[in-house]
Amino acid sequence: MIRGELDLPGGGATPDEAWAELLAGNQRLRDGTPDYPRRSQDAREAVVSGQRPIAAVLGCSDSRVPLEIVFDQGYGDIFAVRAVGPTLSISSIGSVEYAVVELEVPLVVVLTHHLCGALATARHLATSGMDEYADLPGMLPEVIAGIRRSTSLADPADAPTQHAQDVVTGLTERSAPVREAVAAGRLRVVGAVYSIQTGEVIAVT
Ligand SMILES: [Zn+2]
């Protein structure tokens, strides 16, 4: 089924409308009056034939930052890409590109958050004067090094903002499909920070 035949959330929204919709959902969350939209069995069945998400969100994997809850959305609404930080990789960039090219999302949100363990670790290692990160297990040195570059000069309280801005810049630089969609006016890329304490999402780009 082609995208235009699907009667699902997100279809036809402009980039600004999509961002307003996510912010409205976040406001409902903060007000304590979430709608919990599109979470019924009917809503699940409505997306069997395809998806038209209103946005792709590249967010941290942190269990305290569940994207559908943060933005009060449901089935079919958010194309979620999550990686610690978040960080840019072939996988995370390619996932965003899939949403932009194949699903034609009008909005990409890069969402960092306060109290992020990955950002704290990156900052600690960057300011310790040592290369302890090389002793981290598995692929973590590579991941933390990527975050470390973007937060090493930031005040701890500013690190989520700095990192969101850096990821937006990096994503735009590394992805031709994202750049082209932005240039064509059919995509907006927003960097934002989520507060675990208050539940608020604030745009920082
Ligand atoms: Zn995090």
CATH class: Alpha Beta
> What is the number of domains?
1
Q: How would you sum up the global shape?
A: globular
> And the CATH topology?
Beta-carbonic Anhydrase, Chain A
Bound molecules: zinc ion
Overall SS class: alpha/beta
Our Rg estimate from Cα atoms comes to 17 Å
Order of strands in the sheet with most strands: 2-1-3-4-5
Compute the number of strand runs.
5
The ordered H/E elements are: HHEHEHEHHHHEE
Q: What does this protein structure show overall?
A:
This protein is α/β, with parallel strands linked by helices and 205 residues long. The protein has a single domain (3-115, 158-203), classed as 3-Layer(aba) Sandwich (Beta-carbonic Anhydrase, Chain A). The protein is built from 8 helices and 5 strands. The protein has a 5-stranded mixed sheet with strand order 2-1-3-4-5, sandwiched between helices. Strand 4 and strand 5 (201-203) form a beta hairpin. The longest helix is centred in the first third of the chain and has 17 residues, at 15-31. Mean pLDDT is 90; it is low at 1-6. Zinc ion (ZN) binds at residues 60, 62, 113, 116-118.
